[in-house]
């Protein structure tokens, strides 16, 4: 019985020590201790969302989806949080004769994947969309996300974050021209 008491005491001590080292409040004081730094709002649970309302850059490009089809593409922002960077893009398809809700990015790009990429001119690297543990790309689905003709649709692409030294990056989407010098928001 004495050995069991020692094991319980050792386990309790280890848990208390681990909690103290990680800054965890085990007494339920609501985190009354002071904290500072950029991540303190996130750890406090102050949720937010990306709210870019004006595009950083936009262009209108031909689309092989139909004769005379065009697409407006606007880069809304590239925001870094931790080790990830989220690219927000808006598409406005202009496809003559298209049925409502019957357009997708895959078709706008000539039935080819967009293969979004960030090109880092500082470190000579190309970043592709990251995948989750189920091997699914963390991006808006190019085929099953339908767009309405002449209306704005948003898409999101998540990449590994470029290093702090990278202040601007180039963005490649599909067969369209490269968007240059997109600011990296940190």
Automatic annotation (TrEMBL):
Q: Which UniProt keywords apply?
A: Signal
**Residues making up the signal peptide according to the UniProt record:** 1-27
Q: What is this protein called?
A: DUF4352 domain-containing protein
């Amino acid at each position: 019985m004495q050995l069991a008491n020692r094991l319980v005491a050792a386990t309790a001590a280890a848990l208390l020590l681990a909690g103290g080292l990680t800054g965890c409040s085990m007494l339920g004081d609501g985190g009354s201790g002071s904290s500072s730094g950029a991540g303190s709002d996130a750890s406090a649970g102050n949720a937010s969302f990306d709210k870019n309302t004006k595009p950083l850059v936009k262009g209108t490009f031909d689309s092989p989806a139909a004769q005379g089809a065009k697409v407006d593409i606007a880069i809304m922002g590239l925001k870094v949080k931790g080790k990830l960077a989220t690219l927000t893009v808006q598409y406005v398809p202009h496809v003559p004769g298209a049925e409502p809700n019957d357009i997708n990015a895959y078709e706008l790009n000539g039935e080819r994947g967009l293969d979004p990429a960030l090109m880092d001119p500082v470190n000579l690297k190309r970043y592709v969309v990251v995948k989750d543990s189920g091997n699914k790309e963390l991006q808006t689905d190019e085929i099953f996300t339908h767009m309405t003709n002449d209306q704005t649709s948003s898409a999101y692409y998540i990449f590994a974050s470029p290093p702090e030294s990278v202040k601007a990056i180039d963005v490649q989407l599909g067969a369209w021209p490269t968007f240059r010098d997109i600011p990296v928001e940190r």
